[in-house]
Design a protein that fits this description.
This protein is mainly alpha-helical. It has 3 helices and no strands. The longest helix is centred in the C-terminal third of the chain and has 20 residues, at 29-48. The chain has one domain (2-56).
């Protein structure tokens, strides 16, 4: 997940955004990471609790 978050935030830093903006983007790493983890977890839960997986329970 960390690599994906870096892919989202690093390009802005590489484009020489103002220091305050770069710091704000850096501060968003944790919320972005948390949101992505929650999204993946929710999607996996929906898939494994679907009727398609019913025979595996």
């Amino acid at each position: 997940m960390d690599a994906l978050v870096e892919q989202l935030t690093d390009p802005a830093a590489q484009k020489r955004v103002p220091p305050r903006a770069a710091k704000l983007l850096g501060n968003l790493d944790s919320p972005i990471d948390s949101g992505l983890e929650q999204l993946v977890s929710s999607a996996v839960e929906q898939v494994v609790t679907s009727s398609a997986f019913e025979s595996f329970r």
